[in-house]
Amino acid sequence: MPLPDDLTLMANGADATRIVLRVTDQFGAVRPFANDPIVFTLDGPATLIGENPFALIGGTGAIWIRAKDQSGAVQLTAKHPWLGSQTVRLNLTSAPAEGV
To answer: What is the pTM assigned to this prediction?
Structure first.
């Protein structure tokens, strides 16, 4: 399941957030032997920072998403070969005007 540190980023080309990935059982315990590669699909004005596909280590891992200069919605889908896919949505808000 992808767990972002932030759900809202500023669309300034630099703001970023970490997305933690964990394969868990029905009780929320991490499955340490789930080392399968996860494939990401990113839609919206953002850039994926990290490998794609991404191989988990000990059932967990993390990637980063960096906002571009355009505001809007971003959708990241993580697809596991046997467990299916999960999606997380982020919102990119306009950056405030810079003053001197």
So the answer is: 0.85
Q: How far apart are CA 1 and CA 96, in angstroms?
A: 32
Task: Please tell me whether residue 70 adopts helix, strand or coil conformation.
Answer: coil
CA-based end-to-end distance of the chain: 43
Q: Summarize pLDDT for 28-38 with one digit per residue, the tens.
A: 888 888 888 89
Q: Which residue has the tokens 């001197």?
A: 100
**In the chain, where are the structural domains located?**
2-94
Helix or strand holding residue 27 (H, E): none
The one-letter amino acid code at 74 reads: V
**Which amino acid, 39?**
V
What would the two tokens of residue 49 be? 């920072």
Q: Give the residue from 15, 19, 20, 18 showing the smallest Cα distance to 71.
A: 15
The CATH code of the domain at 2-94 is 2.60.40.10
Scanning the structure block, which residue is given the tokens 């032997």?
Answer: 33
Of the candidates 21, 87, 28, the one whose C-alpha atom is nearest the C-alpha of residue 56 is: 21
